[in-house]
Amino acid sequence: MAYWLIKSEPNVWSWDQQIKKGATGEAWTGVRNHTAKQNLEAMKKGDKAFFYHSNEGKEIVGIAEVIREAYPDASDKTGKFVCVDVRAKEPLPRPVTLAEIKEDAKLKAMALVKYSRLSVQPVTAAEWEHICKLGGMKK
DNA sequence: GCCAACGTTGGC
DNA sequence: GCCAACGTTGGC
After folding, report:
1. What percent of chain A has pLDDT over 70?
2. Which nucleotides of B are covered by protein (CB under 7 A)?
3. Which residue intervals define the domain EVE in the entry (predicted)?
4. Segments in A22-139 forming alpha helices (H)
5. Hey, is A44 helix, strand or coil?
6. Which nucleotide is nearest to A9 (CA to C1')?
7. Which of A3, A5, A34, A113 is most buried by a 10 A CB count?
8. pLDDT tens across A70-85, in order?
């Protein structure tokens, strides 16, 4: 089981929209960056990912689950990039903001802080658990 | 194959 | 709206 963080601008694709998709999930398309692409390809069915709102909010709002592994992104005409399907798993009782992450000694080394432009990034197990705790998750 | 110019992302 | 970071493009 691996952990990830996926970013979306809420005015393009928000957590609320993701929730409405329910168990069917939604294709996570639009990645046009090779580092992010490699991360997408490394995702396995059942992996969990934090859902982060960039620009507006700048906070982790929920937990998504990978339900389909990497396949060609239909929205990419060049055929080079891939997407995965994700579904909303559960919202965080309390969103964890970027400001909090930056202030937290355990989290300030996160890719989210260091490589702010990367839209799909790995999260370590320690980071995952800590953010869950901050977000008010029971476990 | 190097590197400058340019475009995009995203925080502030 | 500005700017820093970084990826991509194109001339040589």
Report:
1. 99
2. 8-12
3. 2-134
4. 34-42, 98-103, 111-114, 125-134
5. coil
6. B10
7. A5
8. 999 988 878 889 999 9
- Check whether residue A113 has its CB closer than 7 Å to nucleic acid strand B: no
**Residue A124 main-chain phi, psi, to 5 deg:** -80, 160
Residues 74-133 of A with CB under 7 A from strand C: 114-115, 117
Does the pLDDT value for residue A11 go beyond 70?
Answer: yes
Instruction: Determine, yes or no, domain membership for A139.
Output: no
Instruction: Report how far Cα A49 is from the mean position of its chain's Cα atoms.
Output: 5
* C1' (C11) to CA (A81) span, angstroms: 28
pTM here? Answer: 0.94
Report the CATH number at residue A122.
3.10.590.10
Measured from Cα to the C1' atom, the residue closest to C6 is A117
State the residue range of the domain holding A105: 3-134
Q: Is residue A85 domain-resident?
A: yes
Distance A65 CA to C3 C1' (A): 35
**Closest CA relative to residue A50, chosen from A96, A116, A13:** A96
**Is residue A30 a part of any domain in this protein?**
yes
